[in-house]
Amino acid sequence: MELFDVYPLYDVAPVSAKGIEVKDNHGTTYLDFYGGHAVISIGHSHPHYVNRIKSQLEKIAFYSNSVQNPLQQELVELLGRLSGCEHYNLFLCNSGAEANENALKLASFHTGKSKVISFSNGFHGRTSAAVATTDNPAINAPINKQQQVTFLPLNDFDAFEKAIQSDTYCAVILEAIQGVGGLDEPTTEFYQFIAKKCKENGVVLIADEVQSGFGRSGAFFAFQHHGIQPDIISIAKGMGNGFPVGGILIHESIKASYGLLGTTFGGNHLACVATLAVLEVLEQENLIENARTLGVYFKQEAAKIPHVKKIKGRGLMLGLEFDFEVADLRKRLIHNQHFFTGGSKNKKLLRILPALNISKDHIDQFFEALNKELS
Ligand SMILES: Cc1ncc(COP(=O)(O)O)c(C=O)c1O
Questions:
Q1: With a 6 A CB cut-off, is 131 part of the ligand 1 pocket?
Q2: Which of 83, 147, 166, 253 has the CA that lies 20 to 30 A from 21?
Q3: Are residues 223 and 275 in the same domain?
Q4: Measured CA distances, 184 to 78, 100, 121, 218, 349 (Å)
Q5: Ligand 1 center to residue 123 CA distance, Å?
């Protein structure tokens, strides 16, 4: 048997990792400025995270959602308090795509409608409705194309107003900072306009915070920079710091009933302690503030580089746009300088998504390495 060959791979095989450092099978140490697609939020193998999971594993790792799991209750309380989203209820699942799939399904149940508004360059996952709302025809199979999705340009007030009046939409889904799409953002005015129009037209507003949530943008959720209140918030990635866990926060105005949503693995004991450990470290180590402060520092340092044409993003969800395609630069950063960075749909954009507990010194090391490759 061989692996189903769907990923182009860099020739690096990490075998251990600690904090922001990743070591490969030859003993070479890399600095991780990508966090494996924005997943590593509190650093690799954080001792509190390791201990929480280890000790839970020795007690009970899994039981299905047919019995009480007090860890879920503990998680609801801490997540509600730290995110400021106390007026939401939590449904747990296993990944970002699954979170959006459940968000879209719930919006459709709630409104009795089926069409969705999404935005150019939006990315929401690779499953049925989630991939249909993703602006990339190449990853949509004929079965996904049955979904009815209208793609609109970001920040186009007229196009949005015209579309939403048709009274056929169950949901609007958007990222407050586009990840895979290349770090573009709705303006505050546009996001507030969307929220207002959704409310007026009875359309469910889904904030996809799979990548931008859990402190990455310098606020718990990136939509919080815009003072709006979504109906559903989807979460994953940094939530589990590598443990596969996702979820949706559902505003209390949307009522639950038995059978509406369901999952076998979602909310299992290990997933709960992984998420609790992430939240505890975010709070104890002030990591959201660190993301905010170091994001500003990173941008200041990036502005000194003449090759950088645009600096995008917030907190530690950042992008550097060059006037050339960055695929080769990324390879050189890995192989010559031992730094992991990310790419995006915008081929000229280098994506920067380190753990939220990096230091100024790590950022200085990154710019030293980048300057070497640019000179
Ligand atoms: C904004 C956003 N939504 C959803 C997803 C899908 O998440 P997953 O790969 O966990 O299914 C991603 C993944 O990159 C994402 O960036």
A1: no
A2: 83
A3: yes
A4: 30, 20, 9, 16, 11
A5: 7
Residue 304: which domain range?
A: 14-46+286-374
Interhelix angle 287-302/360-374, nearest 10 degrees = 30
Closest Cα to atom 10 of ligand 1? 96
Read off the pLDDT of residues 293-319 as tens digits, 9 standing for 90 and up: 999 999 999 999 999 999 999 999 999
Together in a domain, 322 and 275: no
Phi, psi of 331 (to 5 degrees): -65, -45
Same domain, 169 and 213: yes
**Is there an atom of ligand 1 within 6 Å of 72 CB?**
no
Strand partners, 248: 91, 234
The SS3 call for residue 97 is helix
What are the b/e assignments for 310-348, b being 16+ CB within 10 Å? ebbbbbbbbbbbbeeebeebbebbbeebbbbbbbbebeb
Q: Tens of pLDDT along 31-45?
A: 999 999 999 999 999
100 CA closest ligand 1 atom index: 4
How far does residue 209's CA lie from ligand 1's centre (Å)? 9
Residues 329 and 279 in one domain: no
Q: How far apart are CA 14 and CA 220, in angstroms?
A: 30
Q: For a pocket test of ligand 1, which of 139, 211, 233, 265 has the largest count of ligand atoms closer than 8 A to its C-beta? A: 211
| Any ligand 1 atom below 6 A from CB of 245 | no
Tell me the pLDDT tens digit for each residue of 151-196: 999 999 999 999 999 989 999 999 999 999 999 999 999 999 999 9
375 Cα: distance to centroid of ligand 1 (angstroms): 35
Q: Are 206 and 176 in contact (CB under 8 A)?
A: no
From 40, 124, 239, mutation site for ligand 1 pocket: most ligand atoms within 8 A of C-beta: 124
pTM for this prediction: 0.98
Distances (CA, A) of 365 to 222, 310, 362: 27, 21, 5
For residue 127, which atom of ligand 1 is closest to its CA?
11
**For position 338, which CATH number holds?**
3.90.1150.10
